[in-house]
Design brief:
Tetracycline Repressor, domain 2; DNA-binding; Arc Repressor Mutant, subunit A; homodimer; 2 domains
DNA sequence: TCTAAAACTATAGTCATTCTGGATTTGTCG
DNA sequence: CGACAAATCCAGAATGACTATAGTTTTAGA
């Protein structure tokens, strides 16, 4: 019996959000290295042990409370794209919509995005979140082009696409940079 | 006056090597996480403070004593390739010669390579060493194709090439995997 | 209400890394 | 040679992330 809306789950999500909010605020104020996990736990009014129970992946994971499913979104975009649309175009669309490429964000999210882009530890962790979706994306691409999902060509393609945010995110014009990379990858695209 | 062969430099290199040797041996015996830097310092007969003076980048950097210049080798391979040879072919040759792709290595080096490939922390650090050569490789590629060295297309190309070792290094046939990736990148290659 | 799982906490570790402050060694120059 | 400055070394303490333990509170569900 999975009661997804029990008080327990609600409190859990609430605490997780309090931790993420405290982390974003404090990081923005004092910088990532200028804040200790003890201070974040204090600000969220929980013990350090509880903090790590909620965020087992550690300090860098604190601000990423909105699920890890970044890479998986791309796989879904491929699978559910309009019929006839080429795979790379679907990927361009999906990438452009989120992550570092979205044009106008609420100031709160913009601050968070800048924080990630400008903090090496957070950028690196963000990359691992994206890359975790590699098998899913490789499977989706392979299904469309009739290739082996574990073959190197498909795997590399998935990896290269998933690394675009980190590669283009810090450019003056991230969106243009993203398209430039796709223009590079598309000629070799299978199928 | 830079006396490159003074006793000081010699002792320094000697200690650095002792640390690297002790680290490789202990890591191979007990695994990366099964060894503390204190044990490595002990085995090399130096204090912990001295260990960090020799290896400021920390535990992962211990076994990489042979200069960081991996990525730079690729840039040189491009610049000094035989006249008329396409850039990608020169890169294939250079990559195939070293890193995880070399066929027959002395058992000592093979053990070290397996250690790196099978240890996430070491693999990640190895990647940062490769990637550090991105600007140099991008400059070399740009010079050949008459493009802007800081343009996204060239930068992405350099990055993607430098990530081949991490991407293909763990495959059953690393060399074949490497060539598969180049077959993917070459159609979009500029110039 | 009763019970067992889940969540919370304080406390005490372990480990990597940095800092401090002083000793020792080495290159150089008079 | 002998002294001086720089580089090197070291013990020891401190910081900070993270883990392990063991006991307390809260909640879900019968």
């Amino acid at each position: 019996m999975v009661m997804t809306t029990g008080r327990r789950e609600r409190k859990k999500a609430q605490t997780r959000k309090a931790l993420a909010d405290a982390a974003v605020r404090l990081f923005a104020e004092h910088g990532y290295d200028g804040v200790t996990v003890a201070q974040i736990a204090e600000a969220a009014d929980v013990s350090i042990a509880t903090l790590f129970a909620h965020v087992p992946d550690g300090k860098e994971a604190l601000i990423f409370d909105d699920g890890a499913g970044r890479g998986d979104r791309l796989a879904r975009a491929v699978r559910e794209r309009p019929p006839g649309e080429p795979v790379p175009r679907a990927l361009r669309r999906c990438l452009a919509a989120g992550g570092p490429f979205a044009g106008d964000l609420p100031p709160e999210l913009r601050r968070k995005r800048d924080l990630i882009v400008n903090t090496p530890a957070l950028r690196a962790y963000s990359r691992t979140l994206w890359i975790a979706g590699e098998p899913a994306l490789a499977a989706a691409i392979a299904a469309e082009s009739g290739q082996d999902p574990s073959g190197m060509a498909v795997r590399a393609l998935a990896r290269y696409v998933l690394e675009i945010p980190e590669l283009a995110g810090a450019e003056p014009d991230p969106l243009a940079a993203m398209h430039a990379i796709f223009d590079l990858l598309e000629p070799g695209w299978p199928g």
